[in-house]
Amino acid sequence: MFTQFYNESIRKLIIGFGSLFNDINVERRNTDGTLKETIRVPLSYGPKEKFIRRIQESSSISDHSKVQITLPRLGFDITGIQYDPTRKTNKLRKTKAVSQDGLAQSYNYAEVPYIISLGLYAFSRNQNDNLQMVEQILPYFTPEFIVSMKVNDINNKVDVPIVLGSVNTVEEYEGAFDTRRNLTSTFEFTAKTYIYGPVKSSKMILQSEIDIFGSEEKWDYPVDGVHDLRIGITGGFSGGTGSDNQIYGDYYYE
Fold it and tell me: CB of 105 within 8 A of CB of 202?
């Protein structure tokens, strides 16, 4: 029953989700209001705990040099996958696509609905950087944002709503005087997506022939008498299931 296939349904969703936050910038200004610098916030995939660990500890680039992670920074990851029974459809429903030459068609059965939970994390040293990142994200989710992606040649445009559930900001200020300040804003999203099964193919039916004929005895009865009509049907089709396949039938009407 199980065969190898890979539509990259979840992978493409993760790429589409991450691309939404790939162009967030933070501006820093002087005391007189003039622009000092603009920082494009780097984005990477990874769990929240990994980023916090890297922020708190210095990384060694040599025996004598140690550096700390650069902030501000954005990170995201998958936090859960759950089946969604409210969007279930008939599992025998097919989605089809015909080849360019018209001689074959590809299809797959009904997609399976799933809810994928995603977490986005914004890390910064000061409050102003954190608020800038938050304000560049929130206006686009009301509370959902539609992402369109191509899964395969059959499902070449799938709209996936990404819903923002909650936002939480934590400021870590307790500790020794040499401890660096850290602000973390956590965004919780849910994507109402689908998981697709393997793509199958079959040939098209190119030709069909049907002959209808009646028995000669029907002409022996008067118009107002009993009519005995025997109709036979023969036919053949070729293409998808082979050629010269015949079907026969004999129907009686009185």
Answer: yes
Q: Give the strands of the sheet with 73-83, arranged side by side.
A: 43-45, 73-83, 112-124, 182-195, 158-172, 144-149
The pTM score is 0.70
| Kind and range of the H or E run holding 191 | strand 182-195
Tally the domains of the chain.
2
Bridge-based pairing of strands 73-83 and 43-45 is parallel
Hunting for tokens 């000669």 — which residue is that?
216
In a domain, 2, yes or no: no
Q: What is the pLDDT of residues 41-65, one digit of tens each?
A: 999 898 877 777 666 665 555 555 5
Give the structural domain span for 27.
9-202
Distance CA 139, CA 143 (A): 9
Whether residue 70 is found in the same domain as residue 104: yes
Examine the domain organization and report whether 172 and 241 are in the same domain.
no
